[in-house]
Design brief:
213 residues, mainly beta, four-stranded antiparallel sheet, 18 strands, 0% helix
């Protein structure tokens, strides 16, 4: 900045001084929640005393920021501030890990005995992945948390038919239920072999039982 002072005799004095305009602090972002979710809230903090704007279409359209932004799909936001003359492009933020698709789920039975059934769940999620398997039988109102293990064995069952369920949860908290029916195997009755047949002074009776009991 230069200042020149002249008197009536046309004598001049020149003064100069260096200064700088105030640096505008770029906007900062807070995203909630972290990790995978079905939606996210982006709060932008601007420096005070300026015009605050944001764009959701790579700078084509600018809107005045008044409240937090809600993202229901992955995307990006650019925030900038203005002092009324100059714009400062603050920074951009890319919102990721939004998953709105529920996982797939199916259930199969195997290793069936008269008192136990092995369940194997097949669940998949291409976005946030599977984070929890839960199993239930009959009413399905009470589930057993099996964490990230996809197999579960029900023991101490009685002979009969059951409806088994698996509830699979993905990283965004969305769930899908897979169902399968299964029947415990009936216990075969013992069989007898008698030797010799007909009349005899003594006989040997051999009893054959079903295996596993």
């Amino acid at each position: 900045v230069y200042v020149k002072v002249s008197n009536e005799s046309l004598m001049e004095t020149l003064y100069n001084s260096k200064t700088k305009t105030t640096l505008i602090t770029p906007p900062i972002y807070n995203v909630n929640p972290s990790g995978y979710a079905t939606s996210k809230v982006v709060t932008i903090t601007y420096p005070s005393g300026y015009t605050n704007e944001y764009s959701l279409d790579s700078g084509t359209t600018w809107l005045t920021y008044t409240t937090a932004l809600i993202f229901n799909a992955n995307g990006s936001v650019i925030a900038r501030v203005s002092d009324g003359t100059n714009y400062v492009n603050g920074s951009s933020y890319t919102v990721t890990n939004i998953d709105t698709t529920a996982p797939t789920a199916s259930l199969a039975t195997s290793s069936i005995t008269s008192k136990s059934v092995l369940l194997t769940a097949t669940c998949a999620d291409s976005g946030s992945g599977i984070t929890k398997y839960e199993f239930s039988k009959d009413s399905g109102t009470t589930y057993t948390n099996n964490n990230t293990t996809s197999t579960y064995t029900y023991n101490n069952l009685t002979t009969g038919s059951y409806t088994f369920k698996v509830r699979c949860t993905n990283g965004a908290g969305l769930t899908t239920i897979g169902t399968v029916s299964g029947t415990t195997s009936a216990i075969a009755a013992p069989t007898y072999s008698i030797s010799p047949s007909g009349y005899a002074t003594s006989k040997v009776v051999t009893i054959t039982y079903p295996s596993g009991y």
